C-alpha cells in the first residue's frame, strides 16, 4: 500500500498497517506521526495549521494488528488549539502524540530562517536502492540520496547525516502529513558510528512545521540534514531540518534515540 492509500484506509478511527511499512518489529515512526496528525485535524478548528507535534513511542505499533486512533481536543482558543492522539493496539497504548495548531497573527517580529546548507543536486547523487532484508521495509516507498555523513554501520562516525529524499510514487498532494512522514525516513545519525548491526529505536520525536509552508511539489526532492547534539549511555539527541529545492526551510525535527549497542 502506498502512503496515500494508507491514509485513505482509516475507517472509524481504526487502521491496520501493512508489513511493508515496518521498521524492525514496529511500524515506521514517520507513518505513525502522519496518522496522528491526520486524526488531530478531525478535532481542531478547520484550516488551523499545525505548528508543532511531539510523539512518544510508548511501545511498538505493530503491523498487521488493528490500531485505534483516539483523539481528544485539550483546548480550543481564539487562534490556537491543543490536541492529543492516543494510539491503542491490543489493549495497550503504543504511542501518544500532542499537537499544537495555531492560526496566523499580526506581529512586528519577522526573522528569516538560516540558509540551506550546500549540497550537490540530487541528480548528481548516487541513488540508494532498496535491498530487501538489509534495509527497513518502509524504504521501498522512499528514495534517499546521500550527501552528508557515513552510512549506517560504516564505523565512519561524525556528527552529520543526510541528503535528498522523496516518495518513489508521489501522492497527488504532499501536504503536511507527507512532510511529517518523509522527515523521519532517515536512519539515526548515531548508526554511522557503529560497525556491527544493532537495533535502535526512537524514544521521543518532535517535529515543527513552517507556516506559511513553502511550496513543495509532491514529486519534489527535499534536502535533509541531521546533526548529533550528544550521545552516551545508549541514548542520542539529534536535531534536523529539511528544505525544498529553492533552499526554503520546510520543517524542523528533534529526536531522542535509543541504541542497543
Automatic annotation (TrEMBL):
<keyword id="KW-0378">Hydrolase</keyword>
<protein>
    <submittedName>
        <fullName>Acyl-CoA thioesterase</fullName>
    </submittedName>
</protein>
<comment type="similarity">
    <text>Belongs to the C/M/P thioester hydrolase family.</text>
</comment>
<feature type="domain" description="Acyl-CoA thioesterase-like C-terminal">
    <location>
        <begin position="122"/>
        <end position="259"/>
    </location>
</feature>
<feature type="domain" description="Acyl-CoA thioesterase-like N-terminal HotDog">
    <location>
        <begin position="17"/>
        <end position="102"/>
    </location>
</feature>
<dbReference type="Pfam" id="PF13622">
    <property type="entry name" value="4HBT_3"/>
</dbReference>
<dbReference type="InterPro" id="IPR049450">
    <property type="entry name" value="ACOT8-like_C"/>
</dbReference>
<dbReference type="InterPro" id="IPR029069">
    <property type="entry name" value="HotDog_dom_sf"/>
</dbReference>
<dbReference type="InterPro" id="IPR003703">
    <property type="entry name" value="Acyl_CoA_thio"/>
</dbReference>
<dbReference type="Pfam" id="PF20789">
    <property type="entry name" value="4HBT_3C"/>
</dbReference>
<dbReference type="InterPro" id="IPR049449">
    <property type="entry name" value="TesB_ACOT8-like_N"/>
</dbReference>
<dbReference type="InterPro" id="IPR042171">
    <property type="entry name" value="Acyl-CoA_hotdog"/>
</dbReference>
